[in-house]
Amino acid sequence: MRELGQYPTQLELKLIISEADKDGSGTLTLDEFAKYLAQPPRGRFSLEQLESQFEVFDQDGDGMITLQEMDNIMAALNLVNYAPDVVRELFSQIDANKDGKINLQEFLDGVM
To answer: Does the keyword Repeat apply (predicted)?
Structure first.
């Protein structure tokens, strides 16, 4: 990926593998990797789009996303490619103050 000018973090690599690993082996074949790269790029989103996405995850509208809310949305959207441990690690990394909840600013800092 570095040869392609991309420098993903370890978490991003785990998410990529989780999404692209179609056979569930835990590793990517060249074919899986090529198909993943052939997908349209994930571009930057506007602040309004990110706030809207935050609201989707904040199911009870209290201004915070809990791990349970994140799990509920992942299940509702049928995002089966994301392993629960990867979701928990992502949640933990975005939850900067480690209070078990993600507020809007943490969400924005985590995705921008």
So the answer is: yes
**C-alpha to C-alpha distance for 15 and 102, rounded to whole angstroms:** 19
Mean pLDDT over each residue of the chain, to the nearest integer: 81
What whole-number distance in Å separates Cα of residue 73 and Cα of residue 90? 14
**Cβ atoms of residues 57 and 69 within 8 Å:** yes
3-state SS string over 23-81? CCCCCCCHHHHHHHHHCCCCCCCCHHHHHHHHHHHCCCCCCEEEHHHHHHHHHHCCCCC
**Exposure of 18 in the CB half-sphere (CA atoms within 13 A):** 17
Sorted by where each begins, the domain ranges of the chain are 7-43, 45-112
> Quick one: tokens of 34?
């090529």
Beta bridge partners of 33: none
User: Taking the CB of residue 104, how many other CB atoms lie within 10 A of it?
Assistant: 15
pTM of the model: 0.60
In CATH, what is the architecture of 45-112? Orthogonal Bundle (1.10)
